[in-house]
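Hello forum,

I keep getting stuck at the same step: I have a sequence, I want structure tokens, and every attempt I make locally crashes halfway through. Rather than fight my setup again tonight, could one of you with a working pipeline run this one for me? It's a single chain of 367 residues.
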Amino acid sequence: MLIYDLDFSALENKLKEWNEPAYRAKQIWQGLYVHLYSSPEQFTNLSKPLREKMAEHFSFSNFKIRTFLDSSDKSTRKTLFELPDGNLIETVLMRYGDPADDPAGLTSKYTNEIGSSKKRRTLCISTQAGCAMGCVFCATGQMGFKRNLSSGEIVAQVIYYAQMLKEKNETVTNVVFMGMGEPFHNYDNSMAAIDRLNDSNGFNFGARRFTVSTVGLVPQIKKFADEQRQVNLAISLHAADDDERTEIMPVNKKYKIDEVIQACKYYIEKTNRRVTFEWALINGVNDTPEVAGKLASRLKGLLCHVNAIPLNPTQGYDGEATSRERANQFKETLEKAGIPCTIRMRRGIDINAGCGQLAGSQTKNPR
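Reply #2:
Ran it on my machine without issues. Output:
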């Protein structure tokens, strides 16, 4: 069993079965999530028989590293993990705020992340192997759905990089559920992973430092709103017209744009939190001032922000990334209409850092 699949109460119950005192659960929990131990041998505050029992019954990692790639500017690392059943998942570390990111300060006007004096270490993690949503421009969608990840498999991605950063006296600052898969299609495990990482007695990662991205599964957006979490919500929108969105995002056949917007209004009413709309800028498709005008009309009066990024190219889609000039025109059109917009830099293009690109290239039988 993967030890990260246990919540604290399950860990307590397991130790009770082993006739261990209750305080042992807290010691193990803090070893896992505060000290970031990666093997039973590191738990020197436990008895040797208990450490041996942990080694016998628990795995501290159920994936192996298939490969990893660093971008040429060293700002991005992508790791491809292989799960015991042979499925592949990806996790990406993005470094922001280092002088090496932007020595001339040229990109600060294009993004609110680069050029910041604050160092950020953002993880983009996966919630599924493959994805069932079928967005045509997404490498993961082109793979098809394989399976959901367990809550522990989601947590383990964060712990892996937290351990790596600790060696450099750095910490994870943000976690975005924007890697492979649709988090709301694996809702319970995604939320359980957040709860485990948010636990104040363990990893203690603030709720507002998580962002969950969805293509717009309306029932789950409402459920998320009812739970009134302080976790950030992002919606992958990418089109302002239903016909155009359906062409690139099949989920729009079931949940039209108006339904998604109404669900977002419900979320805002329940939580008083801003919604981010993600927009992959595709040259000549959704990057014109006219499209920006339509989008502004859709979002008028909504507590929101548009986070646009030039398309990450994939082998399975012919679309191309927009130019910087067209991206700026898109941004200016939205802002003139009162809709805040940020143009983000693409990260790790030279290592196929877009979600699913590396896994898709190494999957023997992609669908």
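The domain at 3-57 is CATH 1.10.150.530 (DNA polymerase; domain 1). If your local run keeps crashing, start a new thread with the error log.
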